[in-house]
Amino acid sequence: MKMKRLTAMEIVDGIKSGAISCEELISGIYERIERSELNCYITLNKEEALRKAREVDNNRDKDEEEYMHKKLLGVPIAIKDSISTKNIQTTCASKILEGYIPPYDATVIEALKREGAIIIGKTNMDEFCMGSSTETSYYGPTLNPHDRSRVPGGSSGGSAAAIAAGEAVLALGSDTGGSIRCPASFCGIVGLKPTYGLVSRYGLIAYANSLEQIGPMASNVRDAALLLEVISAKDERDSTQVKLSNNRATNYQYRYVEEGVKGLRIGVPREFIEGVSPEVESAVWNAIHRFEELGASYEEMSMKYLKYALAAYYIIAMSEASSNLARFDGLRYGLRHAQDADWHTTFSRIRGEGFGEEVKRRIILGTYALSVGYYGRYYLKALKVRTLIRREFDTALKRYDILALPTMPFVAFKLGERIKDPLSLYLADVNTVPMNLAGVPSISIPCAFYNGLPVGLQLVGEQFGEEKIINAAIAYEESSKP
Length: 482
Ligand code: GLN
Prior knowledge:
Blueprint: H1 8-17, H2 22-35, E1 41-44, H3 46-61, H4 65-68, E2 76-80, H5 107-114, E3 118-123, H6 157-164, E4 170-175, H7 181-187, E5 190-193, E6 213-218, H8 221-231, E7 265-269, H9 278-293, E8 297-301, H10 309-324, H11 343-354, H12 357-370, H13 376-399, E9 402-406, H14 422-427, H15 433-438, E10 442-450, E11 453-460, H16 466-479
Parallel strand pairs: 2-3, 2-4, 7-8, 7-9
Antiparallel strand pairs: 1-3, 4-6, 5-6, 5-10, 9-11, 10-11
Helix pairs in contact: 2-3, 6-7, 10-12, 10-13
């Protein structure tokens, strides 16, 4: 069976009608993973996944009514290792969490299980989500399926590469400053960062909690919308989840409007295009012109505070990280040693050994930015910049329905090329962090190939305006079908 080409929706239909054997589908995925050299996964869930697959087949044969309504029945899904999964090791790609098996599921995982999805395993990522290349993982880098000498992007690199290589059909990632969109762009798949507050973060291991969201990754926009619909389930356990009124129901899948993008007003912020590589620039303009042909109109515009976004983001993200990561003390989770004479020695020894270099750098810088005397100069100032950026997005998105821009300033770079110079990696996030500061939704879709490497187009909407960017993305995707 050639499963690589099947979408999640086709799989669900095939399983329900009996045309697809779930067990064969899942074993096919594991065969591919076992042959693969990409290093997409840290932990596999093979036995349990195959058991579930057999259960799906049996219940289908018995024509179990309840099963027939499940939205993701039998769909193989990969989960980023920053999301807690009951009874499956969850490491956040760190040595400090090696061997940690959560006693509970994140809310999004409960939702996936309720809808019949099958968890294939936990995917590789940058340690504690800190990075844009999946090279800071304690478990080694993931390779880009389009060119193995290149990075898959990050931090959700394992999830993106798994989909691109047919080692999963759907995946979850988490995005603090681009971690879903960057690897989606580098691996040629679809990734969506939801509005802050749409998807429960309960069970997501925190890096910078005021910025991050769990989001869907898929080979096509409709599958991503279907997955978003499932994971945006309400949750009382996350107080930052926004309670939406009924007229804003999150059934994204069914809301595609047939008129496509006719009359859609697109803003193209100049600052997001200046400075990107020529091949990315021309790919993105081609895409924007395609929207025009489809009936949308566009206008170039300017967002003057964007140039401060990267600095503000890194101050806020590192400050939050320095506080969030204090809980890893070698006593409660993962890596453990015999107690030293005093607690301070044990704490330092475990953290010294358990955290990688990038994580330590960020804890130190974040602690500095929050310390007496510097708090006002750095952290507080960054928060003020954040407010200005948020307002700038609000204003722009009143004038335009969506914004269109490149996801990444360049195509996937070589492994090892940037990791020695952290600042050059931080700069790669210039087009993705502003949306996290503003809390607005943003989707990355493939729009071109350059020398065999994918280029991503980013579409940004107003808060809780997922529907509009999904519609525009579907219209674009439909128009590129042969
Ligand atoms: N590259 C950014 C960082 O390192 C974003 C990562 C993310 O979204 N988790 O902070």
